[in-house]
Design goal:
By secondary structure, the chain is α+β, with helices and mostly antiparallel strands. It is 39% helix and 22% strand. It is built from 10 helices and 12 strands. It has helices spanning 2-24, 48-70, 75-88, 132-142, 150-159, 173-184, 192-196, 256-261, 264-275, 279-294; strands at 31-39, 108-114, 120-126, 147-149, 203-208, 214-220, 241-243, 248-254, 298-304, 309-313, 317-324, 329-334. An 8-stranded mixed beta sheet has the order 4-3-2-6-5-1-11-12. A 4-stranded antiparallel beta sheet has the order 7-8-9-10. Helix 2 packs antiparallel against helix 3 (75-88). The radius of gyration is 21 Å and the shape is globular. 51% of the residues are buried. The protein binds aspartic acid (ASP). Aspartic acid is lined by residues 37, 93, 200-202, 220, 222-223, 232-234, 253-254, 256.
Length: 337
């Protein structure tokens, strides 16, 4: 009898060990996708030099995240570091080089979501945090909240030891000129032509790591000439950012009000979960049928829990890049490419 109990116990232990090992067994289809914004990006308006700068910046950012994943880092680490690089580049509308509000300074929005735990963090309207995505992650990890705003977000980031900068740090000549131009033509904030002609330069990253965990992050300065502490979709979980290991991780860019109203990022995950749509079908349905039909524009990047990706837009272009587990790199700008 004792022998039977002993053998059963051994079998139970080995069964549990197998289960644990299976859970830890690395998957071989990890991957990463980034975007640097969507909009009226036309080849005829782009100099060769500018195009090369964008392609190089996208390659640099995605390679850093890919290296992390390849070496066994988490999707969270990959998303944070890839976004940090784009935040530090003046080319994109996030961190340094963020667009300016109607008072001439940058108000930064960012969010992050962990697909394994469904934990999330976000900041909006911050003015002093050098790397807003890192602050969003700190909100998730070290506060009982999901979103902090304005000076509260700045104070929290400082208390967490993140790098704090003078608001002038974010301002570039290019964005100053952009704001002047928009204010000179007296862009009407209710005019859809104004929004449709915008170049949305938000940055985002979605990743699947070797442990099968998904993560998504988005970071932006929002819209040029924004007023009244306007907040876009980027810091809103479910609109600008969403991740769930059951389905996919998503980051959006575009006319934020439409992404909020369609709960775009969550909708892509929901279409996969409830309707069994493939990732590219779900992304296309949301961007083209739902947002497009309402009159909104923009794009999304998404990766599912098998490493399949979607990079969908209803604009002329979207700065984007993808790397799979084999290290194959695709960098694209225009829609037809
Ligand atoms: N989605 C952002 C916003 O509405 C803008 C962008 O993607 O550049 O704030």
């Amino acid at each position: 009898m004792k022998k039977i109990v002993f053998i059963s116990l051994l079998m139970l232990i080995s069964c549990n060990e197998n289960k644990l090992n299976n859970e830890k067994k690395p998957i071989d289809n990890f991957g990463i996708v980034i975007h640097g914004g969507a909009g009226t990006i036309l080849k005829e308006n782009m100099s060769q030099e500018m195009e090369t700068q964008y392609r190089n910046a996208l390659s640099k950012a995605i390679k850093v995240g890919h290296e992390i994943l390849k070496n066994g880092g988490t999707s969270q680490q990959a998303v944070e570091k890839s976004i940090n690089i784009m935040e530090d580049s003046p080319l994109f509308n996030s961190g340094k080089g963020a667009v300016l509000n109607s008072d001439g300074y940058a108000e930064l929005d960012a969010s992050f979501m962990d697909g394994k735990t469904l934990n999330a963090g976000a900041i909006s309207g911050a003015t002093k945090i050098k790397n807003p995505i890192s602050a969003a992650i700190k909100v998730m990890e070290n506060s009982p909240h999901v979103m902090l705003s304005s000076s509260g977000a700045d104070t929290f980031a400082q208390e967490e030891g993140l790098e704090i900068v003078n608001p002038d740090y974010f301002i570039t000549e290019r964005r100053k000129k952009n704001l002047e131009r928009v204010q000179k033509i007296g862009a009407n904030l209710n005019d859809s032509k104004f929004y449709k002609s915008q170049l949305y330069g938000t940055v985002g990253c979605v990743a699947l790591d070797k442990y099968g965990n998904l993560a998504a992050g988005t970071s932006t300065g929002g819209m040029t000439n924004k007023k009244w502490n306007r907040i876009g979709d980027a810091p809103i979980i479910g609109a600008g950012t969403y991740a769930n290991n059951l389905t996919c991780a998503v980051s959006s860019t575009g006319w934020g009000e439409y992404f909020i109203r369609t709960v775009a990022a969550f909708d892509i995950a929901a279409l996969m979960e409830y309707k069994n749509l493939k990732i590219n079908e779900a992304a296309s349905l949301v961007i083209n049928d739902k947002i497009g039909r309402l009159g909104g524009n923009g794009g999304v990047i998404a990766i599912d829990n098998k490493g399949n990706v979607a990079m969908e837009m209803n604009t002329a272009g979207m700065y984007r890049a993808h790397m799979n587990s084999e290290g194959k790199l695709e960098v694209k700008i225009y829609k037809e490419e």
